[in-house]
Design goal:
By secondary structure, the protein is of the alpha/beta class. It has 20 helices and 11 strands. α2 crosses α8, α10 packs across α14 and α14 runs antiparallel to α16. It is globular, with a radius of gyration of 25 Å.
Length: about 500
């Protein structure tokens, strides 16, 4: 009897471990079919010393061939179909996305099946993909965009000692160590059916769906999945890292851990406060208004309550990057350094630092005001109504809708956008202000600043000593500013920050 019971319990375990999870979005009038395969692995599954392995494995699958076709043959075959496929890797998941016109579904599906189930893992493809990833880690991240660089640096800084620390693409030495055998083993262990969530949207038949499910059952069993939060160490005061390089400005990213995600209803309240403070790529936010519009200091200034993938390119938050561990952050796109201001305006020839210290003070002062005073009734109502319309743009395409439905399942929800709209509808001003006081503060955080070598030492000194940091205007600009702006400048320049530590790091020392 005991043996029968044991067999029954074990059978339930294997059904739960390897039964297929699927999200469907049937759109009979659509001309397209979208398939997404989300694997619960991400960079947190990278072995120590092999960071970047998940990214390399996924990239090799989508930038390589199958057992029957080379990569070049695959590209030649899908070109007439105008089909698309690719992969995205984040901290917790890898998502493969496939899109094709319904008329080419059968033919395209053979390629999808080959890439996912029987990837060629060819040595030449591996060498090419690895070389690209190595170049990104060694060169591109440091030179192509100081804004993205500062974001990667903050995560490295904020999550030190956890699996969230390292970039998804890995570190210089870890990528060098990855072999083709590592990729093959990683595929078998972490791209198994027990970690897979299947998504399908568009105009497809029941027969096609059943075929897809049947084929994906042949994936390796793989290692079991265990949910593990990455808890960063508590920060005592404000800890600043200045990265010294050849730069045209100071790119700033700052933040602190925040124990709330989309799975928590408080997230809706924080969305309202965050949108009011600095919605990504929107010109009405307080940060944008104070830093860019009023003072013309830079291109944009925004705040975030979750990871915003590829913010330099994406106008809307993309799906496919759900995370168990979260943080609040403020992104100040590059402000001018002293060297530039000195060259442009003779009246500023004696300044020692540019706008970075002032911009940090101004941004954190606005966060602090929101924590202490909260939003007003009018600002709350206007922002909430904006968000109820705006979030619908997240899912305006079949791919976006499917992606957000899959993310919803990850967070234990059914339809995040629909549920969020309902949460926003019943939200009160008191709910928002209470959530802000609960989760936000400015006294304990980490800040990364990517700046020019000429600026690093003086900026570090100014931050650590809480030196008065006046806003450096040209005489012409200053003469045209209202008195209330100049009065506010004085308050900002004297605003004390709880800076406890400042360190300077050479750019070549990062991501090693």
């Amino acid at each position: 009897m005991k043996n029968i019971l044991l067999i029954f319990v074990m059978s339930l375990f294997f059904v739960n471990a390897y039964s297929q999870d699927i999200v469907e979005l049937n759109l009979p009038k659509s001309d397209k079919v979208v398939i997404k395969l989300m694997f619960k692995n991400g960079s947190v599954s990278d072995p120590i010393g092999k960071e970047g392995l998940t990214k390399l494995t996924a990239a090799l699958i989508t930038s390589g061939g199958t057992k029957d076709m080379t990569y070049s043959q695959v590209q030649a075959k899908i070109y007439p179909m105008a089909a698309y496929y690719g992969s995205g890797v984040d901290k917790e998941v890898t998502v493969f996305s496939f899109e094709v016109h319904k008329d080419f579904l059968t033919e395209f599906y053979d390629i999808l099946k080959g890439l996912i189930l029987t990837p060629s893992f060819d040595q030449k493809d591996f060498d090419r993909v690895k070389s690209n990833q190595q170049n990104y880690v060694d060169q591109v991240i440091r030179s192509s965009s100081d804004e993205e660089y500062s974001k990667m640096l903050l995560e490295d800084f904020l999550f030190a000692g956890t699996k969230y620390q390292t970039m998804v693409s890995g570190k210089s030495e870890s990528v060098k160590s990855i072999t083709l055998d590592d990729v093959k083993e990683h595929y078998n262990r972490f791209f198994g059916k027990g970690r897979l969530l299947i998504g399908i949207a568009g105009n497809y038949s029941a027969d096609f769906k059943n075929r897809l499910l049947s084929d994906l059952k042949t994936l390796p069993d793989g290692a079991p999945y265990f949910e593990t939060k990455q808890i960063p160490a508590q920060t005592d005061g404000i800890d600043v890292q200045i990265i010294s390089k050849d730069a045209f400005g100071s790119a700033i990213f700052m933040g602190f851990p925040m124990d709330v995600t989309r799975s928590n209803d408080d997230f809706a309240a924080l969305m309202v406060a965050n949108s009011y403070l600095g919605e990504h790529r929107k010109s009405y936010g307080i940060l944008y208004d104070k830093i860019r519009t009023t003072r013309s200091m830079n291109y944009g200034d925004y705040s975030y309550i979750e990871w915003y993938d590829n913010g330099g390119s994406n106008m809307l938050p993309p799906p496919g990057v759900p995370r168990l561990t979260n943080y609040f952050s403020v992104w100040i796109r590059p402000v001018q350094i002293a060297k530039q201001l000195q060259q442009q305006y003779t009246e500023l020839k004696d300044i020692k630092i540019g706008h970075a210290h002032f911009a940090i003070r101004l941004a954190l002062r606005e966060v602090d005001k929101l924590v202490i005073k909260g939003m007003t009734k009018n600002d709350f109502e206007a922002t909430r109504e904006f968000l109820r319309s705006y979030i619908k743009l997240y899912v305006q395409s079949p791919s976006g809708r499917l992606g957000y439905l899959m993310d919803s399942k990850y967070y234990g929800r059914t339809d995040y956008i629909d549920e969020l709209d309902k949460l926003l509808a019943k939200l009160t001003l008191e709910d928002v202000n209470k959530a802000v006081k609960k989760y936000w503060q400015i006294n304990n955080m980490k800040i990364t600043i990517v700046t020019d070598k000429s600026e690093a030492e003086e900026l570090a000194k100014s931050l650590l000593e809480n030196t008065y940091s006046s806003m450096s205007y040209s005489n012409l600009v200053k003469a045209g500013l209202p008195k209330e702006v100049l009065a506010e400048d004085e308050e900002v320049a004297n605003f004390k920050l709880n800076v406890k530590k400042v360190s300077i790091i050479k750019t070549e020392e990062t991501f090693k």
